[in-house]
């Protein structure tokens, strides 16, 4: 197999599911590829460049299926569906959201996704500046929520996960903090899809409200 940055990144994503981001090393990747670690540095200069390449694969996995909104659909539904696609792409890899956070992604599929987001919001009445600030708000919410979601179900905890419902109930003094005790599963995002959808709705409705406020002057 000819080794290049994409082969290295795909190998890293496969290994990620077994060892997590903290356990992923260049030596482990090289061992899996049957080469010495210094060989990898001809293609990826450091761990950050490796993460950039991995994040590109995850982002492209979500973005390559993105199409313009069909006739009659709302920009709100289209933007929310894009966020769901991105979340699912991150959830398909252990620590996938941590991989994507803060990385530099430069790929034609990414540029196309950005263009579609800007065009969709422009067509919905947003200014270019509003669109350029608006869709990253959805993007950042999606990544941040997924980071927390994956952290709370992390395999790194093993059988000692502090976020299990039983341990959550034991952590809070229900007499002193009754509302916190009752709402603990919601506060810590243990309701998965429902929690994500609720927050996503807030962000999208916030974009709509901001545009309407500007239109009212």
From TrEMBL:
SUPFAM superfamilies: Homeodomain-like, Tetracyclin repressor-like, C-terminal domain. PROSITE patterns: HTH_TETR_2. Pfam families: TetR_C_1 (PF02909), TetR_N (PF00440). It comes from the Bacteria. Residues 25-44 bind DNA. Keywords: DNA-binding, Repressor, Transcription, Transcription regulation. The keyword DNA-binding applies. The keyword DNA-binding applies. This is TetR/AcrR family transcriptional regulator C-terminal domain-containing protein. It comes from Streptomyces ossamyceticus. The lineage of its organism: Bacteria, Bacillati, Actinomycetota, Actinomycetes, Kitasatosporales.
